[in-house]
Amino acid sequence: MKKIITITFSLMLFVNFLCSQSVVELAKTEKERRAKLKGKKAVVVTNVDLRNLKKREAVSIIEPAFDEASLSLPVEEIEQDDTEEQARLNANWNKTNERASLLTLRVRELQQRFYSFENQYDRAEMQREIVQAIQKLQEAKQNAEMAKRELDQGRIKRRK
Question: CA–CA separation, 63 vs 98, rounded Å?
Fold first, then answer.
């Protein structure tokens, strides 16, 4: 057992000597590395900088005011009645789908802000906002599903 330990230790020591760098080589590589970085500037962030940092929203969502006319598809005059209905359904689906995606982003942003607060009071307020936003998101997803069903039914009707 002693022979195995001795042989293993001596092999490890021998490999260490073969793979090691000399101090001179190490100094040369460090000098080259510093020469490459000489002209570059670096930003140093200290604890004082972090204390003075104000917490802001990571993502801010501005809900656009959608106009159905701006989202509608161009319609041909020949099939005006049919295509106007199809365009209205498509615009409605696009609008509800966009609202659902915006609310998803809002929920994620609120969750991110929730985990960044250290004050428990702020977290309680944020939790209330998250619950409200999730309820709005669920409602928007249901509206988007209904709009998608109406759009599909309109397409099926048009094909017939």
Answer: 10
